[in-house]
Specification:
Blueprint lengths: L5 E4 H11 L4 E5 L4 H10 L3 E4 L3 H15 L3 E5 L4 H14 L3 E7 L16 H4 L5 E5 L5 H13 L6 E6 L9 E4 L19 H13 L3 E5 L1 H6 L2 H11 L3 E3 L14 E4 L6 H9 L2 E5 L5 H4 L11 E5 L13 E4 L2 H11 L9 H22 L8 H11 L5 E4 L3 H9 L8 E4 L7 H11 L5 E6 H6 L3 H7 L5 E6 L5 H9 L19 H7 L3 E5 L5 H10 L4 E6 L12
Parallel strand pairs: 2-3, 2-4, 4-5, 5-7, 6-7, 9-10, 9-12, 10-11, 12-13, 13-14, 15-16, 15-17, 17-18, 18-20, 19-20
Antiparallel strand pairs: 1-8
The chain binds thiamine diphosphate (TPP) and magnesium ion.
Length: 562
């Protein structure tokens, strides 16, 4: 169709296009697009990470995408398609640009009960921005370009391409094609839409007049790479910053204006500060239930302004006094350029109040963060991680109590650290860490997960070893899914029976030994003084490492205040 067509197979074209988009790894369970894998070997340097399940392949691609800020690719043959779709749920919720490729039905055999036949396409509908079939080999170039364009544009998100043939055998066919790529869509964000000047001015005027304004920064700040502009504007106008769980790396926890993660999996000081604010400025956050503790923090009706790249996000949950459509970095930079720093003095008392709230929080949790208890208190792990993480670390955290402990109690200490979290799916973090390490081999990658979370995809330790992807995984091993404890207490009317524990506890396990058997470095830690040396050893090991920390099954993470 375009200018430089030549006859080639779908496999040659797809391999060249993925390489052209800068894809370095694909994550998959065979057999799908087999000829494409052969062409990848002949024509490109793309690593074909063959793993133990389609869901973990999707999580690896998701971790890769979030860490690199560029699309992550995962693949499955038709029989594994719904396993892969299940793995896109977290990417969908977290707005991560994952491109899923599956084999699919052939018009020649449709509706004839051919082996493995199911119409998988509808299952991808709720977890993708684009969900299409490629039925003619000549459509590979334009559909792959559209996949990259859609995954990275606006609010990013997953897409699904189904290739004709159980194993996507359409890649064997030939056509006149051009393996043209649009480099712009190899990364997030492809464009930086500039805000309208009048909208910037209106928002800035409100912020400058306010006495107790606060930023609530979300994952859009990371997607836009707007951390520096956010912190600079916060400093210029003396406005504190709370973040969503997904936006935790928008500002280091060590910054005096940082008040912590707000919402349900949160830090008490952040909820108190947001509830005291006279103006909340949401930046790159959906203002969803988790970030606002089901719209109680702040209460609906609190004066609010919002900055987002997606027009339909503006005002969804909070009536707005001003809204600014645009790329977060562009908007914040425009505000900074016009900021009246002299207005900062109006907020001196508020900044002092923030300092007090910060101090109160550290005072209240000091003993937990430094706890010498055995079995180990999970808060101590957070305290140790805050001290030990290198400046360029990527920290990846599972959900449930893992999200609560780390969201509330872990502090990033530098602008160059990254933090990514499961958007709710237990078991996401460990494979996502493998994907992140594949994407960023020079950066230390440390995963924090519970034991229930680790069990999900434990077989991928073997994958990490086989492909030499040396992420470090710390397992908060309490022998059960203890986030379920409170819920079952309630279900049993206050106190559980002995048998009720069958519903959420496991056999005791030494994950360090299991990891060693699979070829990784395994370190078992039973005393809090062992955490720091274990982290140091694991980070220096240059091979996948599992740190198994024996913790207290009775320790419950603090719940949100509102
Ligand atoms: C896919 C999925 N299924 C179920 C849940 C519900 N869930 C949340 S936390 C949790 C238990 C977590 O246990 P573990 O990872 O060991 O952490 P702990 O609470 O023990 O610290 C469960 C079952 C979930 N979040 N995701
Ligand atoms: Mg557990």
């Amino acid at each position: 169709m375009l200018g430089h067509n030549r006859r080639m197979t779908g496999a040659e074209c797809l391999a060249d296009m993925l390489a052209g988009y800068g894809v370095t790894h694909v994550f998959m369970v065979p057999a799908v697009l087999r000829r494409t894998f052969a062409e990848m070997e002949r024509r490109t340097k793309i690593a074909r990470i063959h793993c133990h399940g389609e869901k973990s392949a999707a999580y690896m691609a998701d971790g890769y995408a979030r860490a690199a800020g560029k699309p992550g690719v995962c693949m499955a043959q038709v029989i594994g398609a719904l396993n892969l779709a299940a793995g896109l749920r977290d990417a969908w919720l977290a707005h991560s640009p994952v491109i899923a490729m599956t084999g699919g039905r052939d018009p020649k055999t449709k509706f004839r009960k051919v082996y493995q036949e199911i119409d998988d396409v509808p299952a991808f509908e709720p977890v993708t921005k684009m969900n299409v079939t490629i039925d003619d080999v000549a459509r590979i170039p334009d559909m792959v370009r559209q996949a990259f364009r859609t995954a990275t544009s606006g609010t990013p998100g997953p897409v699904h391409l189904q290739f004709r043939g159980n194993e996507g055998q359409i890649d064997l066919e030939e056509a006149e094609m051009e393996a043209l790529v649009e480099a712009q869509f190899a990364r997030v964000p492809p464009f930086r839409p500039q805000p309208e000047a009048a909208h910037v001015k209106a928002a800035l005027d409100l912020l400058q007049k306010a006495e107790r304004p606060i930023f609530v920064a979300g994952g859009g700040v990371r997607a836009s790479g707007a951390q520096a502009e956010l912190v600079a504007l916060a400093e210029a106008l003396q406005i504190p910053v709370a973040t969503s769980l997904n936006g935790k790396d928008a500002i280091p926890g060590s910054h005096p204006l940082s008040i912590g993660v707000v919402g349900s999996y949160s830090r008490e000081s952040a909820n108190r500060a947001v509830n005291r604010a006279d103006l909340v400025c949401f930046v790159g956050t959906e203002t969803g239930g988790m970030t606002t503790h089901f719209w109680a923090v702040p209460a609906i009706g609190t004066p609010a302004i919002q900055i987002d790249i997606e027009p339909e996000a503006l005002g969804r949950n909070y009536p707005l006094q001003a809204s600014v459509l645009g790329d977060a970095k562009a908007v914040l930079a425009a505000m900074l350029a016009q900021a009246d720093k002299s207005s900062a003095s109006r907020r001196a008392a508020w900044v002092e109040e923030i300092a007090t709230l910060r101090g109160q929080w550290y005072g209240k949790y000091k003993s937990a963060l430094e706890s010498a208890a055995v079995p180990i208190h999970p808060a101590r792990i957070c305290g140790e991680l805050s001290k030990a993480m290198p400046d360029d670390a990527i920290v990846i955290v599972d959900t449930g109590h893992a999200g609560m402990w780390m969201g509330g109690m872990y502090d990033l200490r530098s602008k160059t650290q990254s933090y990514m979290r499961s958007a709710g799916h237990l078991g996401w973090a460990f494979p996502a860490g493998i994907g992140a390490k594949a994407a960023c081999p020079q950066r230390p990658v440390v995963v924090f997960t519970g034991d229930a979370g680790f069990w999900y995809h434990i077989g991928e330790v073997e994958t990490a070893v086989r492909w030499n992807i040396p992420s470090v995984t710390l397992v908060n091993n309490n022998g059960g899914g203890n986030q379920s404890k409170r819920g079952f207490d309630r279900a049993y009317g206050g106190e559980q029976t002995q048998q009720a524990r069958e519903l959420w506890t496991y056999r005791p396990m030494n994950f360090a030994r299991l990891a060693e058997d699979m070829g990784a470095l395994g370190i078992r830690v039973e005393h809090p003084s062992g955490i720091a040396p274990a982290l140091e050893r694991a980070l220096a090991a240059k091979r996948p490492a599992v740190i198994d920390v024996a913790t207290d099954i009775e320790a419950l993470a603090p719940t949100a205040v509102s």
